[in-house]
Amino acid sequence: MSDHDHGHGHDHDDHDHAHAHEHDEDDRAEQRARRQVALAQIRQYGDPVLRMRANEVEEFDDELARLTERMIGVMHDADGVGLAATQVGILRRLFVFHDEDEDRVVVNPVITVRGKETEVDDEGCLSLGPIRMPVERAIEVTLDGFDAAGNTVHLELEGISARVVQHELDHLDGKMIIDRTDPESRREAMAQLRPRLVLSR
Length: 201
Ligand SMILES: [Zn+2]
Fold this sequence. Notes:
Oligomer: single chain
Bound molecules: zinc ion
């Protein structure tokens, strides 16, 4: 949303509204285009890189900072709440996620405390298109790691944020929600995924 329409006189109201409407449509078209560009950068199911274990990050340099910034941009443009480096084809242990209005970067993440209580809820994945499936996750987790500058990060998370970091950490170990869901949901998801695999050959 921009505020450039403020300050116009009342006599221009109709004119402004017409323009505002056009702008909304332009914005939506631009958003869709940006989403397509972002999704094109994200590895999709069937890509072997999604099944590989990512390696620990050893150097906190400018390149790492640039990578995390690019990943935050791709995550937002793709309308996602989390993105693992694996998903952009980089086998390094880091992910970004959106936690209560804040973008967070976690490098070499480790879940140090996992609550015993779990909850089943539907999850989607930017590497699986529109498919969603139920996944059981711990409701509370404590996550330790580092930010892009190498400072320690210690997060006590619950609910959606706890779910997101468990999902992203799975990516770094080559695991996806299709491995975590119940057998029937897996069958349904595979049936939806198979035609896409054939088409992409
Ligand atoms: Zn995912």
